[in-house]
Design a protein that fits this description.
Length: 115
């Protein structure tokens, strides 16, 4: 356009450069905030949940192995008692122990409730 002054084109380029610089600055700030938020979420949420999951998985595995071990011990104890007391006597002895242990727990619970 011939009737526009020559300085107008330079001003438009300067304004465009400023707008581009502001857009770049905003994009850099947005990227920084996104990166910081991701780091905080990873450190404060994801890693503790992963540690909790590993702890729960290892506790569940340990519990399962404990139960299997206790079953083997119980079977061995039953067979050992069966040699001494016969099978009905071994069952009666084990049942009697369970009844006594349950009575102890009941007495403890009643005393705790009375306090």
């Amino acid at each position: 356009m011939p009737d526009e002054p020559a300085g107008t084109e330079r001003e438009t380029d300067g304004i465009s450069a400023i707008i581009d610089s502001i857009a770049d600055l905003l994009q850099t700030a947005a990227d920084w905030v996104r990166q910081e938020a991701e780091t905080i979420v990873r450190e404060k949420i994801v890693l503790p949940i992963q540690r909790l999951g590993l702890t729960l998985a290892s506790a569940a595995a340990a519990g399962c192995l404990l139960v299997v071990g206790l079953i083997f011990i119980a079977v061995a104890l039953f067979l050992w008692l069966a040699e001494w007391l016969t099978y009905p006597g071994a069952l009666a002895a084990i049942g009697g122990v369970y009844v006594l242990v349950s009575l102890v727990f009941i007495v403890i619970k009643v005393r705790m409730m009375q306090k």
